[in-house]
Amino acid sequence: MIRFLDCLFSVIGLFFGLPVLLVLTLIGYFDTGSPLFRQKRVGRHRKPFVLVKFRTMKPDTASVASHLAEASAITPFGQFLRRTKLDELPQLWNVLKGEMSLVGPRPCLFNQEELINEREARAVFKARPGITGLAQVNEIDMSTPKLLAETDQKMLKNLTVKDYFSYIIQTVLGKGNGDRVRPSH
């Protein structure tokens, strides 16, 4: 049922969101010269996939988890995208391809070994990674790997269709701030 809902909502989102996607791509091109950000992430069963988002940081920013990046790397337009969560829209393509779900544990980088080990111990990788979930709406991010893995496990163990809609609605309404970034020095 969840996979059906993922496909339905990603098709609807991509179709009706196309004008927004085109405008954000155009603005992003003028902002950074490279509006889309692609990064290899850990997927279901620990298989790699390429996550696609709108770029929120300068193109020369090191490829690290957000909480390890400097706040000064985020562009003004990138701040807007993060605050409104519009930077996540291109991930609807990842959802449609079956690499992600709308709701699930946020996909991590392969160099986040502590988080990978914590998630592996809790069978979190049996699920597709998601755009949002219990951790995200409660502002738990990758800077606390054990807590994040425990929260992911709890969500997956108890996930219902009602929860699925609840996490999506809470995210759309602005609950949760996304991954933290380090303050600029």
Features:
185 residues; mainly alpha; two-stranded antiparallel ribbon; two-stranded parallel sheet; 7 helices; 46% helix
Can you describe this structure?
- It is a single chain.
- With 185 residues, this protein is mainly alpha-helical.
- The chain is 46% helix and 11% strand.
- The chain has helices at residues 2-32, 76-84, 91-96, 113-121, 134-137, 145-158, 161-172, and strands at residues 36-42, 48-54, 101-103, 130-132.
- Strand 1 and strand 2 form a beta hairpin.
- Helix 4 (113-121) packs parallel to helix 6.
- The longest helix has 31 residues, at 2-32.
- 35% of the residues are buried.
| Structural class estimated from helices and strands | mainly alpha
Major sheet strand order: 1-2
Provide the succession of SSEs: HEEHHEHEHHH
- Low-confidence regions: 180-185
The mean pLDDT is 90
Q: Helix count, per DSSP?
A: 7
- Give the strand tally: 4
Strand content: 5-15%
List the helices and strands and how they pair.
Elements: H1 2-32, E1 36-42, E2 48-54, H2 76-84, H3 91-96, E3 101-103, H4 113-121, E4 130-132, H5 134-137, H6 145-158, H7 161-172
Parallel strand pairs: 3-4
Antiparallel strand pairs: 1-2
Helix pairs in contact: 4-6
Question: Summary?
Answer:
With 185 residues, the protein is mainly α.
